């Protein structure tokens, strides 16, 4: 005859063992973030297990701890802490609570990772891209029939906290928000081919472009092809903009094809800010904000090249860049040639 007391003791013993196993597994998983499945990792870190492992291999020479301390952070832990911050955009102490470490450790990990990623800038961000230039042109042509395009150009603002010092007003943009103005160029696959992240929010898009080294290279004719920009840029032989007031049917069709093709940079902006929520508002100084922006662009290109799962795209905010009325005569003639030869 079974004894209820013995059965109860056995059940309680099983519960205790199960809880001990769960605690042990939780501790083991905490020390190894890659122990979780891809769905959990993507939700928490915006990358799959293989993607995080790839980033760890890239950054290992720069962030590996040469120490014999028992509780030193591993490379996967350091990388995942930074990815958690980039992906959530929350406060450092909130990331620390989620990862069960101190706020100071989170701050050090994030800084170590974004400075290490910045060192890989020229590896993952190259103009006109990682593919042959004819392949890039063909991909853009397949969107709306716009020929000879090697990149879509635009700027976006990344909001920051009010900086201290005499230059605080320089960071106030047209919407009276403190920000940095970031120039990016993307290909047809939304991979970023150029980034300029060093200008205050009050600086106009066209000035950022004219001050860039890429502008000088294009002016010297080092690249065969044209960029597409919005009304915030002057029409140049190597930078085509839409007609302000189209008069003919060819000009209307040119504008439609131009908008559809240039829309890839808007899509890239949406992808980056959806994957890395921290770019909606950075509570850091302008120099650190610029470094974080560059790091996120490098991570975006890694995600695109590795075909990581894409987040739901949030529409990019229109920052209301005023139109440039002064246009280059040669640029206008080339734009008319495109409209009459390809869209008539």
Automatic annotation (TrEMBL):
GO terms for molecular function: hydrolase activity; metal ion binding; nuclease activity. Keywords: Cytoplasm, Hydrolase, Metal-binding, Nuclease, Nucleus. Residues 153-301 form the DDE Tnp4 domain. It is found in: Cytoplasm; Nucleus. InterPro entries: HARBI1-like, HARBI1_animal, HARBI1_dom. Its cofactor is a divalent metal cation. Coiled coil: none annotated. One of its GO terms (cellular component) is cytoplasm. Transposase-derived protein that may have nuclease activity. Does not have transposase activity. Belongs to the HARBI1 family. This is Putative nuclease HARBI1.
């Amino acid at each position: 005859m079974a004894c209820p007391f013995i059965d109860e003791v056995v059940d309680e013993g099983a519960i205790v063992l199960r809880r001990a196993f769960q605690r042990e597994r939780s501790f083991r998983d905490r020390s190894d973030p890659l122990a979780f499945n891809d769905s959990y990792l993507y939700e928490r870190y915006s990358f799959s297990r293989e993607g995080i492992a790839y980033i760890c291999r890239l950054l290992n020479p720069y962030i590996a701890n040469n120490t014999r301390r028992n509780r030193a952070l591993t490379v996967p832990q350091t990388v995942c802490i930074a990815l958690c911050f980039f992906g959530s955009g929350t406060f450092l102490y909130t990331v620390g609570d989620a990862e069960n470490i101190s706020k100071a450790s989170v701050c050090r990990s994030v800084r170590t990772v974004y400075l290490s990623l910045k060192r890989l800038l020229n590896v993952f961000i190259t103009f006109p891209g990682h593919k042959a230039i004819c392949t890039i042109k063909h991909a853009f042509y397949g969107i709306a029939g716009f020929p000879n395009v090697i990149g879509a150009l635009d700027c976006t603002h990344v909001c920051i906290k009010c900086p201290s010092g005499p230059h605080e007003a320089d960071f106030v943009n047209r919407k009276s928000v403190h920000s940095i103005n970031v120039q990016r160029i993307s290909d047809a696959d939304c991979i970023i081919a150029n980034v300029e992240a060093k200008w205050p929010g009050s600086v106009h898009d066209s000035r950022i472009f004219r001050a860039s080294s890429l502008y000088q290279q294009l002016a010297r004719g080092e690249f065969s092809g044209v960029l597409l920009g919005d009304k915030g840029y002057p029409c140049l032989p190597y930078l085509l903009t839409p007609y302000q007031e189209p008069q003919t049917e060819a000009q209307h069709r040119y504008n439609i094809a131009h908008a559809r093709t240039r829309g890839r940079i808007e899509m890239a902006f949406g992808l980056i800010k959806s994957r890395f929520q921290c770019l909606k508002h950075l509570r850091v100084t302008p120099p650190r904000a610029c470094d974080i922006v560059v790091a996120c662009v490098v991570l975006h290109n890694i995600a695109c090249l590795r075909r990581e799962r894409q987040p739901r795209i949030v529409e990019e905010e229109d920052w209301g860049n005023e139109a440039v009325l002064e246009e280059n005569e040669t640029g206008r003639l080339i734009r008319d040639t495109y409209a009459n030869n390809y869209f008539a």
